[in-house]
């Protein structure tokens, strides 16, 4: 499925997919590990292969340059990596937040396992919250995520995205890269380097500046008035042109305006139900 979720735990609102274990606030790390399905270790074994000797007998030989990573609980394989690969354990992701939650006022909000254990994350609310307009609220979070299959460096970052699945994790990682070319409020530790939680926390001291920049952008956006026609044009591009480039989507919006102005009665909506629902949300 699109969310690629195996296990998760959360505090607060139920995620969009309806899965996971809901916890009451301020649970200890040990409870989070159990309820989020992160109470196992990544084990490893040298790669071996089977060959035949000159007598036709099967023999097992080692391939010492590679290791197989597997789960301690199910023994399911996770990936094949080099000897230099530095894996980060699920419990290390949660332990990152122990002093933050016990001493600094942070609160774990979500944590979970994706892709059968190949990827996992935890997310804590920083306490930085801003009301934008009406009932809209933007929360500040610290995200820590990693993968043991080489698809993601261990990444700690500021985000305003509530991560509850693989899709929202990808959005959070992408949005931060897009918002600042310098990667403000992001620390990436490649798997060729040992993960040092204390060092990462020191580097994340810039996350407050990242939050301030995010809120400045959000407040600029809420000052921009959007008409019904402009909102419809935008959502039309989002729902019906997901395979187009950004430039092609912009061109489509321009054509939309022209078509509505010229022949409004001929306008069709292939995703009419979805567009109607989003417009209802837009109208509050």
Distance linking N and C termini:
30 Å
Shape: globular
**Spatial strand sequence of the major β-sheet:** 2-1-6-7-8-9-10
Strand content: 25-35%
Topology of this structure?
Blueprint: E1 5-10, E2 21-22, H1 29-35, E3 42-52, E4 58-71, E5 77-82, H2 90-95, H3 98-103, E6 107-114, E7 119-133, E8 136-147, E9 154-159, H4 166-179, E10 186-189, H5 197-203, H6 207-222, H7 228-240, H8 246-262, H9 272-282
Parallel strand pairs: 1-2
Antiparallel strand pairs: 1-6, 3-4, 4-5, 6-7, 7-8, 8-9, 9-10
Helix pairs in contact: 7-8, 7-9
Kindly describe this structure.
By secondary structure, this protein is an alpha+beta fold. The protein has helices at residues 29-35, 90-95, 98-103, 166-179, 197-203, 207-222, 228-240, 246-262, 272-282; strands at 5-10, 21-22, 42-52, 58-71, 77-82, 107-114, 119-133, 136-147, 154-159, 186-189. The strands form 2 sheets. Strands 2-1-6-7-8-9-10 form a 7-stranded mixed beta sheet, with helices on both faces. Strands 3-4-5 form a 3-stranded antiparallel beta sheet, with no helix packed on it. The mean pLDDT is 83.
List keywords for this structure.
about 280 residues, globular, alpha+beta, seven-stranded mixed sheet, 9 helices, three-stranded antiparallel sheet
Task: Provide a quick synopsis of the model.
Helix content is 34%, strand content 30%. It is of the alpha+beta class.
């Amino acid at each position: 499925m699109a969310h690629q979720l195996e296990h998760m735990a959360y505090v607060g609102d139920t995620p969009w997919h309806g899965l996971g274990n809901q916890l009451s606030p301020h649970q200890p790390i040990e409870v989070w590990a159990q309820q989020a399905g992160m109470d196992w270790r990544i084990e490893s074994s040298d790669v071996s292969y089977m060959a035949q000797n000159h007598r036709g007998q099967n023999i097992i030989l080692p391939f010492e340059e590679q290791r197989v990573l597997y789960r301690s609980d199910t023994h399911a394989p996770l990936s094949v990596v080099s000897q230099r690969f530095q894996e980060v354990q699920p419990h290390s992701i949660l332990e990152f937040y122990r002093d933050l939650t016990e001493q600094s006022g942070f609160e774990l909000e979500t944590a979970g396992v994706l892709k059968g254990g190949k990827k996992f994350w935890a997310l804590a609310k920083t306490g930085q919250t801003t009301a934008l307009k009406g009932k809209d609220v933007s929360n500040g979070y610290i995200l820590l995520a990693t993968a043991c299959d080489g698809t993601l460096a261990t990444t700690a970052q500021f985000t305003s995205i509530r991560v509850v699945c693989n899709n929202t994790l990808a959005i959070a990682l992408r949005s931060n890269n897009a918002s600042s070319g310098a990667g403000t409020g992001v620390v990436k530790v490649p798997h060729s380097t040992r993960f040092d939680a204390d060092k990462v926390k020191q580097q994340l001291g810039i996350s407050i500046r990242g939050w301030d920049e995010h809120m400045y952008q959000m407040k600029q956006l809420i000052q921009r008035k959007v008409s019904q026609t402009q909102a419809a044009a935008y959502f039309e591009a989002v729902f019906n042109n997901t395979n187009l480039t950004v430039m092609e989507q912009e061109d489509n919006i321009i054509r939309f305006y022209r078509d509505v102005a010229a022949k409004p009665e001929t306008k069709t909506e292939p995703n009419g139900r979805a567009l109607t629902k989003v417009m209802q949300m837009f109208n509050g």
